[in-house]
Amino acid sequence: MKNWLIKIPTLVLFASLTMLSCKSAQSNDPADMPKDISERPADESSQKYDEAQLDKLKASIESMTMKEKCTNAADWAFSPLGIKACGGPVSYIAYPKKNEATILPKIEEYTQKMSEFNKKYSITSDCMMAAEPTGVKCQGEKAVLIYP
Q: Are 50 and 118 within 8 A, CB to CB?
């Protein structure tokens, strides 16, 4: 009977220690909480991420060209924009000549990044050559490319 009385306090002590060791620490700090999926950093090695970066750069270029009002077509030029997987530009863009030093490097950067994107993700394209414009005209204060 003596052994039985010693076993009960030992068992209670063991059970208490087990329960205490399993208790998780709770924190009310929001920094310790799981992040919402929309707040997670982008996967910088994904095709979607790279495509979004290209889209941002293209939007930046287009924004630079749209800031200027077209009142004299002679003040405007055009450039190929982007590159298809099998070669040749994706399209052409009109830009104000006075901003050429700023815009052309961005266009070259975009085209280079698109070329790298095409290679990295084995992109295929229709291989049809984009028609090259013959000039620029002003229409409603916007530059419009002229095609033959």
A: no
